[in-house]
Amino acid sequence: MYTNIISVTELQTHLDDPNWVLVDCRFSLQDLQRGRRDYQTAHIPAAVYADLNADLSSTPIKGQTGRHPLPSPEAAAATFSAWGIGPGVQVVAYDDAGGALAAVRLWWLLRWLGHDAVAVLDGGWQAWQRAGLPTRAGLENPPGRTFIPQIQPALAVNAAEVDALRLDPAYRLCDSRAAERYRGQNETIDPVAGHIPGAISTPYAENLNPDGTFRSPAELRQRFEAILSGAPAGQAVFYCGSGVTAIHNILALETAGLGQARLFPGSWSEWITDPSRPAAI
Predict the structure, then answer these.
(1) Which end of the chain is more exposed for a tag (fewer CB within 10 A), N or C?
(2) Which residues are catalytic?
(3) 0.85 cut: is pTM over it?
């Protein structure tokens, strides 16, 4: 069972395995239909397509939520069932952004709903292409299965919990956005700039090599041991702008062998919906 990352070589040997489900998660925040178009032009054989907004988030956004609120367990289960995900199925997710967008969101959602057999393709679509491996166009229609969600509530924290733990020296609150957004500079997405007071700047992009593959487990371990400074993974909480790229750090932490951290799904875009919550620059 693969539970964090998987290489293109390892995936290639399982392309015809009926108990494996591949999910193409390519997505562009600037062009919301580009990922779907790219998928229909060429994708890894048998892969289904996951849209970050339509399939891996709840819509429409209601109330005081972040920009990518979690789908309901019932909605996610229906989607996963239609894709052929069920007990005993190995899932592999990929994108073209080093795993940073919908690929890690799918990885976390499945684990949150009790399905641990899910991995992110190391290097994603680009690594598959560099290896000269087969692709095909069009749509896929996999046989359905029954996905039964078993929520793991310990994987997520809400805004009230974040407000408390950010003041607790035993915990580490980590901001996964680029350093300039953490500092309140060049904020082009959210209406308020800055970060949650007490958070540590932990840009997710530093988990990757220049070719978009993950750094070695040893390098990742060194990185996160310095960031957590003695705190265990279970006392680390990651957030970003909307609860998507923060998962990249959670995946990297596990790949490093340091354990399972938690996610603030609403992240900065939810935090700032309440003007009474503090912000720092």
Answers:
(1) N
(2) 240
(3) yes
